[in-house]
Write a structure and sequence with these properties.
The structure holds two protein chains of two kinds.
Chain A (H helix, E strand, L loop, with lengths): L8 E3 L2 E3 L3 E4 L6 H11 L3 E8 L20 E5 L6 H13 L5 E4 L12 H13 L3 E6 L3 H9 L6 E2 L13 H10 L5 E3 L5 H9 L4 E4 L1 H4 L4 H21 L28
Parallel strand pairs in A: 3-4, 3-10, 4-5, 6-7, 7-8, 9-10
Antiparallel strand pairs in A: 1-2
Chain B lengths: L12 E4 L10 H11 L3 E4 L6 H18 L3 E4 L2 H6 L4 E4 L6 H8 L4 E6 L2 H9 L4 E4 L15 H11 L4 E3 L8 H6 L5 E3 L1 H4 L4 H15 L5 H7 L2 E5 L2 E5 L4 H7 L8 E4 L2 E3 L14 E9 L2
Parallel strand pairs in B: 1-2, 1-8, 2-3, 3-4, 4-5, 5-6, 6-7, 9-13
Antiparallel strand pairs in B: 9-10, 11-12, 11-13
Helix pairs in contact in B: 1-2, 1-9
The chains are: A alpha/beta, B alpha/beta.
């Protein structure tokens, strides 16, 4: 079997056994978040940087729910409208002392939340210069993904479809090209709706999948976290095992010879 | 360019350097302590050092006072004031004329004049001074041999001078209430502050006395007591916090993993307690929330 310990994923020198990166937003409660994290087996967690609500006495920070476990932290730059704002958020995140990974996320359109490709590339260039380990969330454009890799991204994260849409992988052809061309891990980030989508991403050869909404907003987030984990493992295994080529017509599973009802061979006459 | 705070002159506690009062301690450290304690204008005065030393000190003090957002005034040396981008100069009665100083410094920089009688005070006001020193109120070691003008000149100044005036000369925590009672709303001290073991504590005590007296004077000043006007997470507020650490404590965030940005620059936790909060500061207090 090819799925073994050697099939670990390495990003910026960090060896990961799990190929699921899990977002921490929109869970029904901190308790559900913790259970889902456990069920998912995720080793990388994402979160956002926001102003402290000074009116609120309660600590609504997400980190308090993650203490006592070992995670690699991947803060995002959501809320940034351009490269400068993303760099500013990245620096704030790094100042918290949780490592130097940063997910560049610069949305240019409020309705689609699709990433601004130009600002994303600029931010990636600047943050690499500043010594960050940069994982840009980007559109699924093969050339852009290559440019991000060349800019020094430690992994590139094309979206399957818009954030939180659950539309799955809208352009498997592009995604396949991106993966074929890549020399860094390609992580499908955004748009996953169900376990089938996650498995599809992995079968296309993605190195990992980053999810949040399909787990957090599922009827049973903990069960869905487990479903995603199994799907990602299944998809990865399927990819490594090597699928059969697609054919237009059937190809029988058993040889037709010696069928009980086959016509007798000519030589018997 | 001098800082934009130049002409506002809303100071209350004026501190002047006096290295002979703190042997073994650096002038910058002592003045920083004074600033932490609430001194809100600084004058570099050194009658004995070489011009090169004064120039170097002027540059250091400029950096320090910028961090704290307070004006820097240079005694006598207009050229150094210009070169070090100080906010202005302070001149004595025997120094360069006010008109000549104004010509050299331009309209935007502060010019302060030492005066020892109401006649001199009115003349400086008419001549375009931005503030005057009124003193020495008491006999002082920094101006040996000069007769004290006593609080009677302070009283005259309070009645007749319309530009800011600062009472100076031998003022201590022991006599400052008398000076304030005579009509001073701004005081200057040298040895009492820079010669103290804890200049910050002395400055805080001075400010408390000045504050305690001020409400009777005007509503505008009363508003100042409520603290420093700052913008925290986009919301304007007044705070009595003097440092980032105090601001964090006021919001009860000291035990939380919060990142602080002050005027666009991150302030690391180790520096919270020594980073001052100045008027108009833009503070961002951020943390991590759920996100994908």
């Amino acid at each position: 079997m090819m799925m073994n310990d050697q099939d670990s994923l390495v990003i910026a020198g960090v060896k990961l056994q799990s190929r699921m990166l899990l977002g921490t937003g929109r869970f029904p409660s901190p308790h559900v978040l913790q259970q889902a994290l456990t069920a998912s087996g995720a080793e990388v967690v994402t979160f956002a940087v926001r102003r402290v609500n000074l009116e609120e006495v309660e600590d609504d920070s997400v980190l308090q729910h993650l203490s006592g476990r070992h995670y690699t932290f991947l803060p995002n730059t959501s809320g940034a409208n351009n490269a400068e704002e993303a760099v500013r958020i990245a620096k704030l995140a790094r100042a918290a002392g949780l490592g130097s990974w940063i997910k560049v996320e610069i949305s240019a359109n409020a309705r689609t939340l699709l990433p601004d490709p130009i600002e994303t590339l600029r931010a990636t260039e600047q943050l690499v210069k500043e010594g960050f380990d940069v994982l840009p969330y980007t559109s699924d454009d093969p050339i852009l993904c290559k440019r991000l890799e060349e800019a020094g991204a430690v992994a590139v994260m094309p979206g399957g479809s818009p954030i939180g849409s659950g539309l799955g992988i809208m352009n498997p052809y592009n995604l396949g090209l991106i993966i074929e061309e890549a020399n860094v891990p390609i992580i499908v980030d955004a748009g996953i709706g169900s376990a089938a989508d996650a498995a599809q991403a992995m079968e296309l050869g993605a190195s990992a999948v980053l999810l949040n909404s399909p787990v957090a907003k599922a009827k049973d987030p903990v069960a869905m976290a487990l479903a995603m984990k199994l799907a990602i493992e299944a998809g990865r295994l399927s990819y490594l095992a090597g699928r059969i080529p697609k054919k237009r017509y059937a190809s029988a599973s058993s040889a037709p010879e010696d069928s009980l009802f086959a016509s007798p061979a000519k030589g018997a006459l | 360019m001098a800082d934009s705070t130049s002409k506002k002159l809303d100071f209350q506690l004026y501190v002047i350097t006096g290295t002979n009062y703190h042997p073994g301690r650096s002038m910058i450290d002592v003045i920083e302590q004074a600033l932490i304690g609430g001194a809100d204008i600084v004058q570099l005065r050194d009658k004995t050092a070489s011009k090169q030393d004064i120039r170097e000190n002027a540059h250091k003090l400029r950096q320090l006072t910028r961090r704290y957002g307070v004006p820097l005034i240079i005694n006598d040396h207009i050229d150094i004031a210009l070169e070090a981008e100080a906010d202005g100069v302070h001149l004595g009665q025997d120094d360069l004329s006010l008109a000549e100083a104004r010509r050299l410094l331009g309209p935007d920089r502060i010019i302060g004049i030492s005066t020892h009688s109401i006649e001199q005070g009115l003349a400086a006001q008419a001549g375009g001074a931005d503030y005057i020193g009124v003193g020495p109120v008491y006999p002082t070691g920094t101006k040996p041999g000069r007769a004290a003008v006593t609080t009677s000149y302070v009283q005259e100044a309070a009645e007749q001078i319309r530009i800011p005036f600062v009472a100076i000369g031998g003022i201590t925590l022991g006599n400052v209430d008398t000076v304030i009672a005579a009509g001073a709303s701004r005081v200057c001290a040298v040895s009492e502050i820079v010669g103290a073991d804890d200049p910050a504590a002395v400055c805080r005590a001075f400010k408390a006395r000045l504050h305690a007296a001020a409400p009777q004077r005007s509503e505008v000043q009363a508003d100042d007591f409520a603290g420093t006007g700052v913008i925290v997470n986009g919301v304007a507020q007044r705070t009595t916090a003097r440092t980032v650490w105090e601001l964090i404590c006021q919001h009860r965030l000291e035990d939380r993993r919060v990142v602080v940005e002050l005027d666009g620059e991150i302030v690391v936790r180790e520096e919270w307690s020594c980073t001052p909060i100045h008027e108009g500061a833009a503070v961002e207090l951020v943390h991590f929330v759920g996100g994908g």
